[in-house]
Amino acid sequence: MGSLQAWVSEHKLASVGTLWASALVASLAYSRKRTPHKTSLRLIHARMHAQALTLAVLSGAALKHYFETNFATDESKN
User: Which range marks the domain in which residue 71 is found?
Assistant: First the structure.
């Protein structure tokens, strides 16, 4: 798990791009079997799902960074 975290911190942009692309493909594959919509509508929905997941992950990473920087310095003062 530590090596995965190190790779993600070293390759942030590639990690976000990979997450977005895999969410897009997963959403397209899921909607292809479940809904009778046109391909263009499926693509729009898949892009929205991928963007929502990416924003959630980026928000989580921002919170993690905030708490690490603010509380790590507070612990060193005590």
Answer: 16-77
